[in-house]
Write a sequence for this structure.
């Protein structure tokens, strides 16, 4: 089942379920798996999605095993009659299904733990094609299947079939499938990741400045993804020990920080600018309130979600400056902002004036417009920042909120 | 190119681009197209995604044309060397590409309209496989391609290749591709849609109560989709005239309202509960402010986005009841809420107490917890509603906000 070290391995990702082919559900598993598999130095060449029909599943698995060295499939491993992945795999290698004792014990123990009797139909989840291996599922009753499919003239293709539930699938991939793929590529069986986050520039500018850093054959690999104008760089190192991986990652981090120091704000997949701001405020023993004018209030939701923190006091959203002045019976706009700082008892106020209205039904980018950002610090000084911004309605409000946070971060440094 | 009326047509959706196979971008086109194609009574059996490699594209199109009656592809129609769909299609039918004058004129006019010179390379976008038809693109320079691929023993497979830009792709599908598919199925060339929105029950309960209404072979078809616990029913009628379509839709709407009257809140793809509330408030000449306590502030953003409306006054978000009392130097919680109503000058206040904290990095459902909703009306009466709610962290805050809106809608009826 091993392949020579030097060969560039290819992969196909398969998603199984009528809910995807009918469009009832958006498939996010294929994207996640493509990123993870790519980080291991394996080229994902195809995705395929197929409904809950046995003949179609057999076809899709046959085509995939013929054209890809590694196949990672999700879905079709549940206990119902719709779940056909076990049968399809058995048909692909023309071998029967057999009961796997270890899997049966695990399924029984999952029901025992939940203090529920095991329905008879769940025993089908312990059936495996003869000659396949188990992929342990610590969170659910559906074990995964690891099956080699012989091919004439080239090494066997390796199929990993995982459940479609994202939480189960992700953990099984990281814990079991990724090390097995890394072993196939010969790059060492330990895999370590680090994620660095950036805001303030576009993807193509970032790619240009990083140059060779994001080349596919570099070690460790650096992957770039963008979500709502926030850029994530994910560093993946494979080696024989965690220590070697970590040393490789540390050096790559240094190089990245040398190339693009100014847009970096922190580390970790779910680390956002509000977390960076919260940490800075805590370190300074200060706090923040936000005022959002216009047709959105994204900062209020993001900061509220920080969890119990003395650094965030609350948020206020209103349509216009005039509404703000009226609400506090203030003498003018400046007085109203000062009053907000007093009422919320915060050292800082961050104000967005104003989010533009979006036509929610439209996919058309909005023309650039001026947005005023105002940060009021502990000394009461009002520091303005003007933004000219347009773009796709899906992310325009988020980009404005994030630009406001970038301005506040600059003042907090 | 026509197929007999009675045959159940099948479809494959193809997405083209390295940005999808590497996982850099999430493919949402395939889901959108699957819904639209399904509404026309055609069964989508497969999705395939392929990178920017000619041989792989040719393979994917060959497999698709062999196993599906209709193929809808997106991507690969730009002017750069990465854009290979034209070449791939020519290879599939083994015919050369030829310059199409009408397409060339359109591309030139698009550049003339933007007052920019046309780069030489854009002329490649006017190249079509011999024997193919154009799919007009009113918004961009990339025309689509409509190509029949002959098959032995069955009718030709029909490939529609569209650009990957969602706004262009969607309009071209609705305006040109959908009528051509409807003509293939023999159901009449006019297509009309209606979308009804529901909140307050789960997808499976909805399916059970709708029964035969959502059967695939019913006319007009009713499709069900769920987004953040809001259920959309999309009715699609095809007939020879718009009037016949509309009459069919009207009757189906009546039947649906008879089966599930209590969760319905309005019509239209982007119509949400906040729009229903805004309309009710305007009709009553009343207005609303929201208070959100805890670890989210989703209502503030949703209501702010309504656009200039006298019916929404603003939102306030704070961590705890105690913060609210302190902010207004109130005697107690009840007094603080009254003061908010006065300060915002609103007839109603809707309060959520409180959104639970989420572990953002986790995919694990949260256990059910109590959340208190409070609505204060024009008469100052405080009307409480208690919710016990848990579930997936991705949508839990949204579900709580939507449940609060459902409570307010009830009081406004």
């Amino acid at each position: 089942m091993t392949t020579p070290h030097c060969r560039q391995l290819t992969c196909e990702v398969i998603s199984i379920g009528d809910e995807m082919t009918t469009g009832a559900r958006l498939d996010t598993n294929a994207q996640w798996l493509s990123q993870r598999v790519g980080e291991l130095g394996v080229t994902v060449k195809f995705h395929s999605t197929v409904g809950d029909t046995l003949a179609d599943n057999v076809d899709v698995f046959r085509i995939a095993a013929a054209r890809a060295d590694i196949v990672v499939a999700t879905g079709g491993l549940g206990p119902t009659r719709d779940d056909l992945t076990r049968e399809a795999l058995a048909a692909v290698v023309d071998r029967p299904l057999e009961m796997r004792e270890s899997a049966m014990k695990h399924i029984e123990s999952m029901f025992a733990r939940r203090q529920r009797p095991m329905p008879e139909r769940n025993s089908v989840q312990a059936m495996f094609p003869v000659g396949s291996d188990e992929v342990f599922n610590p969170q659910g009753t559906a074990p995964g299947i690891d099956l080699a499919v012989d091919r004439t003239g080239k090494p066997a293709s390796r199929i990993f079939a995982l459940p479609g539930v994202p939480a189960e699938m992700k953990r099984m991939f990281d814990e079991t499938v990724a090390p097995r793929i890394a072993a196939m590529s010969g790059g060492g069986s330990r895999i370590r990741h680090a994620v660095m986050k950036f805001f303030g520039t576009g993807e193509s500018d970032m790619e240009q400045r990083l140059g060779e850093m994001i080349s596919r054959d570099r070690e460790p690999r650096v992957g770039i993804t963008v979500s709502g104008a926030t850029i994530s760089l994910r560093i993946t190192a494979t080696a024989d020990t965690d220590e070697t991986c970590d040393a490789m990652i540390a050096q790559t981090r240094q190089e990245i920080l040398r190339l693009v120091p100014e847009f970096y704000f922190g580390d970790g997949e779910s680390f956002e600018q509000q977390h960076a701001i919260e940490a800075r405020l805590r370190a300074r023993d200060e706090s923040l309130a936000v005022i959002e004018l216009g047709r959105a209030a994204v900062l209020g939701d993001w900061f509220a979600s920080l969890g119990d923190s003395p650094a965030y006091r609350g948020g206020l959203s209103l349509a216009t400056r005039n509404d703000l002045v009226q609400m506090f019976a203030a003498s003018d706009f400046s007085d109203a902002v000062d009053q907000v700082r007093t009422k919320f008892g915060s050292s800082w106020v961050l104000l967005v004036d104003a989010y533009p209205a979006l036509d929610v039904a439209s996919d058309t980018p909005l023309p650039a417009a001026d947005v005023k950002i105002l940060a009021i610090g502990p000394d009461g000084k009002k520091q303005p920042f003007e933004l000219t911004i347009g773009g796709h309605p899906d992310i325009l409000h988020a980009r404005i909120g994030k630009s406001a946070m970038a301005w506040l971060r600059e003042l907090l440094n």
Q: What stands out?
A: DSSP finds 13 helices and 17 strands in chain B. The domain at 273-412 of chain B is CATH 3.90.950.20 (Maf protein). Chain B touches chain A through 78 residues (CB under 8 Å).
